[in-house]
Amino acid sequence: MPRSSCNTKRLARLCGAALAALLATGCDGRPNNPDGRVVVRYWDKWSGSEAKAMQEVVDDFNAGQDRIRVEYSSVSQINRKLMLAIGGGNPPDVAGLFGNTLAVYAENNALTPLDKLAAENGVSRDDYIGVFWDICNHRGRLWGLPSAPASLALVWNKKLFREAGLDPDRPPQSIAELEEYNDKLASRDENGRLVGAGLLPSEPGWWPAIWGWWFGGDLWDGERITADSPENIAAMEWIASYPERFGARDLLSFRDGFGNFASPQNAFFTGRVAMVLQGPWIQNFIRDFAPPDFEWGAAPFPSSGPDDEGVTLVETDVLVIPAGAKHPREAFDFIRYVNTQGPMEKLCIAQCKFSPLKEHSPDFLQRHPNPQIGTFLELAKSSHARFVPPLTFWVMYENDMKQAFGKVWTGAASPREALAEVQSRLQAEFERRRARWDRVAAALQEGWNKQP
Amino acid sequence: MTRREKENLRTGLLFISPWIAGFLLLSVYPLVATLYYSLSDYSVLSPAVFVGLENYRNLATDPIFWKSVYNTFFFAAFALPLGLLVSLTLAVLLNFDLPGRGIFRTVFFLPSLMPMVCLAVLWQWMLNGDLGLINNVLRPPLDAVNALFGTNLTPPNWLQEPVYAKWGIIFTALWGVGQAVVIYLAGLQDVPRHLYESAEIDGANFWKKTWHITLPMISPVIYFNLIMGLIGSFQVFAVPYVMTEGGDGPERSLLFMATYLYQNAFDYWSMGYACAIGLVLFLVILGLTLLATGLSARHVHYEGN
Predict the structure, then answer these.
(1) β-bridge partners, A194
(2) What secondary structure does DSSP assign to A13-81, as a single string?
């Protein structure tokens, strides 16, 4: 039947055309660049005012030369999206990651090593506060450069100190003294319900894994996981003292009444807790959400003994070039630009962080919106500044420690039991991951040697 | 086959080719690939390395995986029968010829239109231990009991205490039964009136009519809702994931198989391991569906047969 065969052909042609249109538009949404510049696509996790700060730095870069145009996009859940974009062979040229994810990206061959590009451009460890350069190195190579760094300090509410009869300008100097302060700052209503507290390790509870640092412990020694070391157990025993003193259910119920961190109901801003472990960005949240007369100070977090004074966690956002990026050299030009004093300070001031560069401009501390920024900066420079272990399963480690913390916090397990469980599971995982690394290391190193 | 038939076949195939292509590319290929990746060390970015049954061996000895299996079965064991019971009861009630039943039908259907994430956030507040609506309702009677007997009962912090957390999620799931109610209602309206009339002449009461007419007549609909509910409750993910802010809940009491799969795939970079969990989940659902089909074969009546 000629008629039906003609229809069949027409249908086939139609389907073909539709498929072609789909393929043509689906894969690469790269805009054309009429001005002949190389387009560098840049993804970062920031949103809101932090994204705006970076956009301004990008605009300065684009205006300052006519060879490269950086196109910045705010990308939520960047780890997952970047993983899929790299796997799919269409990654951005620059991406902003958390420094503690470099190990897993690097060992999965997802990044471009930057050693040669850095050497060609004269970038070295000497330019930075050392610890930030170290965060960016893994397995003997450089994987990114810092963008916005931070350190953690004890931040306290001076008004509550005064009301409890404490010296508002003298934060606790040791864990023992912290507990004396806690006893003075805790308060209950007429029904006996907890309504105020000093420091609660669960609030906001962002770093459940690292309390052992202030007790002289660590999370690994390079060869073994040390979650159940005596120091970490001592830290967990300190955690366990809270439900013992205040009642496990009372603590949970008290915490359930806290609002979101980024809201005026934040427990620290409403005065329900008097002390928190926080980074320099807290100033931005105080400005936006705390009462106008909020008075606060920042100091090194107290430790159990004099050897661990000034211990802090340092972390930094990093700029990386994903493996398979189309324009690695132009991408590095942009990363390099961000890592010069002017742009870096502009970014860090807007995001309320300090600069990771060794030298800052003379008036940097005065221009900075955070009156305590010097404290955070000194903590980062101290020899006790530490970063989380560069393990490919750090997320799992942190999650397991969070579970252990939760069990101890509710009294469901003893510190020793909770940490023994973490230890056995993570040591097995550590060995599995090491076996994987041993299997692929030679091939990866060879591939990395050939990078630009 | 005549020329005409061949031509017809070709046209037919061409017309359903989008479906065939979709089925092969989006269903068969992922399933086969999952099987392959579950036998390999794979992280999406580096090429998969075949490791045989290692992932399955690790699964067998992974206490957290078994915890997630237990949680999933616990949730399904309560959410599924409760869901069937509540939705069927609501459907029978909403089928009574009463004024304003259109309004009630809408009211009970509305929650199922709510996106999962909103539902989770809403119930996070409902179940909040300090300010939640549910505890505000529970507190006065508990206080009365305390006053009478000198006890010290307090309502639980639903999502913070492992014993109560799963019940919080089960309540939340029950709130979204509207979809099943609508399907039951359609089934109920298909039951021929004359059967009820004959039964009434024979003196049957409401319960007898329900047991001997309604339930057998809508048994295919019950079966359908059972299977859909089974699949849905074993895949529970979004609500607990949002409620626990991406975590596993207190003492991992809200870590379900789908959550653990997701964590391994996207947080721990162990896609091969995640694929193995996915296949186990698939086999569990397949096995239970076959079991349900076998057990219910004698009780499901199709009018066409």
Answers:
(1) A188
(2) HHHHHHHHHHHHHHS--PPP-TT-PEEEEEEES--HHHHHHHHHHHHHHHHH-SSEEEEEEE-TTHHHH
Q: What is the DSSP string of B234-247?
A: HT--HHHHHHTTTS
Using a CB-CB cut-off of 8 Å, the residues of chain B touching A80 are 266
Chain B residue numbers with beta carbons less than 8 Å from the beta carbon of A251 are none
- Close Cβ partners of A80 (under 8 Å, ≥ 6 residues apart): B266
The pair phi, psi for residue A156, each rounded to 5°, is -130, 155
Phi-psi category of A175—alpha, beta or left, where left has phi over 0 and alpha has psi -120 to 50?
A: alpha
Distance to chain A for B114, nearest Cα, Å: 23
What is the sign, positive or negative, of the torsion defined by CA atoms of A18, A22, A25, A28? negative
DSSP 3-state assignment of A112? coil
Q: Are A253 and B129 in contact (CB under 8 A)?
A: yes
Third-level CATH fold of B77-296? MetI-like fold (1.10.3720)
Chain A residues with beta carbon closer than 8 angstroms to that of B49? 439
Name all domains of chain A by residue range, CATH numbers in brackets.
38-149+316-386 (3.40.190.10), 153-313+389-433 (3.40.190.10)
- Which chain A residues touch B267 with a CB distance below 8 Å? 395-396, 399
> pLDDT per position in chain B (305 positions), as tens?
789 999 999 999 999 999 999 999 999 999 999 999 999 999 888 788 899 999 999 999 999 999 999 999 999 999 999 999 999 999 999 998 888 888 999 999 998 888 889 999 999 989 988 888 999 999 899 989 988 988 888 888 888 888 999 999 999 999 888 899 999 999 999 999 999 999 999 999 989 999 999 999 999 999 999 999 999 999 999 999 999 887 788 899 999 999 999 999 999 999 999 999 999 999 999 999 999 999 888 888 887 66
The C-alpha R_g of chain A, in whole angstroms, comes to 25
**pLDDT 10s digits, B30-59:** 999 999 999 999 988 878 889 999 999 999
DSSP structure string for A142-161: E--EEEEEEE-EEEEEHHHH
Side chain identity, residue B58: N
Closest to B257 measured CA to CA, from B287, B280, B231:
B280
Give the minimum alpha-carbon distance from B267 to chain A in angstroms, rounded to a whole number.
6
Q: What is the per-residue pLDDT for A4?
A: 47
Write out pLDDT tens, residues A333-347: 999 999 999 999 999
Helix (H), strand (E) counts: chain B: 16, 2
Domain boundaries, chain B: 77-296
Instruction: Mark yes or no for CB contact B268/A393 under 8 Å.
Output: yes
Q: Using the beta-carbon criterion (under 8 Å), do A108 and B10 form an inter-chain contact?
A: no
- Contact across the interface for A396 and B154, Cβ inside 8 Å: no
Q: Between A8, A393, A425, which is nearest B11 by CB?
A: A8
Interchain pair B41, A436: CB under 8 A: yes
Largest separation between any pair of C-alpha atoms in chain B:
91
CA distance A29 to chain B (A): 22
Cβ of B60: how many Cβ atoms within 10 Å? 10
Counts for chain A of helices (H) and strands (E), in that order: 17, 13
Encoding tokens for residue A377?
């900066």
> Any chain A CB within 8 A of the CB of B117?
no
> What ranges make up the beta strands (E) of A228-334?
273-278, 296-299, 312-320
User: What's the complex ipTM?
Assistant: 0.85
Looking at the complex, report in whole angstroms how far the Cα of residue A143 sits from the nearest Cα belonging to chain B: 16
